[in-house]
């Protein structure tokens, strides 16, 4: 509906405008978030070297003259052990049913396994076009890559198998081209200047959460949640008030550190990243609170946005 299209002008031979939704799926650590970041070129989806850290569906809009690819970031599918785990899996499935193109990510440096087979089976039921994306090609040599491409193509019926590296940038444009080719003909979905339709607060909360996890992932891998309570613009300054939730007092001590030294670092790191994201100066006020067993309590989960 919104915006005109250069492709309309001139008629004869112009390719149709395509627009639609796509997402990357795959087992934890397959490289989905890193790939999304590399394609979008800005730090929107949050990555970590620990599985299951992507907790929000985040959309990034890739504008091209003849197309618009809306990337939806989903968490990795996994065996639920807590209520949060179940919610995450529901979120993954509902996202899958809404998109036009799905890129199943399989790392080049790990054997194709049961998890990949399971997800491939689930995807076969959907109406979306499914591509296989062999990620992290920079980690293997040509021979290993060729073997992996073969193993992946034997895994299921894919519209295409595309090897990429988010780190070296290898084939990223090709992947976008291939995915775009499978989008439906459609008018432009979002205005030209829009990169993401997610509330800024979600992105800000994710940046704070990532900073709070830095260096303590082994101790508190899934025990931190962040809620941005208020964002108040004041001239060219954005005042942000946020709560960092942990499950237990002992975790609160870890996050805060000796004489609040760690919390200060978290605040500084997060503030820099938020300033980059918002393009304004930021004042960041962080409070650490204990929400007992928040991962298991539906009321707490709702409050924390799950
Ligand atoms: N060398 C290399 N490492 C990569 C590449 N892509 C991702 N990684 C690394 O692989 C790990 C997992 O990447 P993520 O992007 O967080 O994986 P994910 O699939 O989003 O993981 P979940 O959020 O757990 O579902 C991180 O340590 C990344 O740095 C790549 O192209 N090359």
Task: Describe this entry's structure for a reader.
Residues 216-292 form the KH type-2 domain. Residues 26-33 are annotated as: G1. It is found in: Cytoplasm; Cell membrane. This is GTPase Era. The structure is a single chain. The chain has helices at 32-40, 83-96, 114-123, 142-153, 172-181, 200-213, 249-256, 261-278, 298-303, and strands at 18-25, 58-64, 67-73, 101-107, 129-135, 161-163, 225-234, 237-246, 281-290. With 306 residues, it is α/β, with parallel strands linked by helices. The protein folds into two domains: 6-181, P-loop containing nucleotide triphosphate hydrolases (Rossmann fold, 3-Layer(aba) Sandwich), CATH 3.40.50.300; 200-303, K homology (KH) domain (GMP Synthetase, Chain A, domain 3). The strands form two sheets. The protein has a six-stranded mixed beta sheet, with helices on both faces. Helix 6 (200-213) runs antiparallel to helix 8 (261-278). The two termini are 31 Å apart. Bound molecules: guanosine-5'-triphosphate. Residues 26, 28-34, 47-49, 51-54, 75-76, 135-136, 138-139, 165-167 line the site of guanosine-5'-triphosphate (GTP).
